[in-house]
Amino acid sequence: MIKIAIYGKGGIGKSTTASNIAAALADRGLQVMQIGCDPKADSTNSLHGQGAIPTVLDLIRHKGDAFSLEDMTVRGYKGVVCVEAGGPTPGMGCAGRGIIAALEKLKEKGAYDTYRPDIVMYDVLGDVVCGGFSMPMRKGYADAVFIVTSGENMSIHAAANIAMALDNFKDRGYASLAGIILNRRSVKLETEKVMELAADIHSTVIGSLDRSAVVQEAEELHKTVIEAYPESTMAEEYRKVAAAVYREAQKRR
User: Fold this and answer.
1) Going by fewer Cβ within 10 Å, which terminus of the chain is more open, N or C?
2) Catalytic one among 27, 42, 71, 127?
3) Is 210 a catalytic residue?
4) Is 14 a known active-site residue?
5) Which CATH architecture is the domain 2-250 placed in?
6) 107 an active-site residue?
7) 170 catalytic, yes or no?
8) Strand pairing of 144-149 and 81-84?
């Protein structure tokens, strides 16, 4: 089982990238589990197309421990197992607790033994890297971390903070930074800016994704690009990124 965490600033296309990677890996015959670690609980929407699904925090709030593994999970494209951690009641509690609760409950309910995934992907909001948001980095969870960024200043700033957190945690046996995914936003000197970031944090750009209307068109259909437009140039870009992610993560098992 290979465990991957994908981090990035909110709104940068992290969840779209993660879901298309999951779909591309599922197309290769791998059993994939994607765990949405964002309070918005929309990480897996394009994989299962069902709209909102029960989040782990909602189940805990309403049922205590009286719920099953099947209540927490939904099967999506090519059998991808979809989970959403969820978030606290607005104005109350810590969003990071949802991540901690979800990961603990998945272990308690025997998710990994039941589904036997080849790939576990954590889709994590990277605006802050503290508390529960750093949970997927910890020993026993992700083997490798990938950062999705554009050339926008705030996205690069968030990416640098994520890399700094990983560097600070390196003596604790946490996951290692396995690469950067450039999700283009047509920013001036975008490639150069992200390459400079990669050099600063001692990493590499393992793949890039062009800005394309096809991505939004697929999302309007509640599908990934891989499912909706499998012959498109964009689908091929996602496949190349998925292959690079899989290759780099294998090195860090």
Assistant:
1) C
2) 127
3) no
4) yes
5) 3-Layer(aba) Sandwich (3.40)
6) no
7) no
8) unpaired
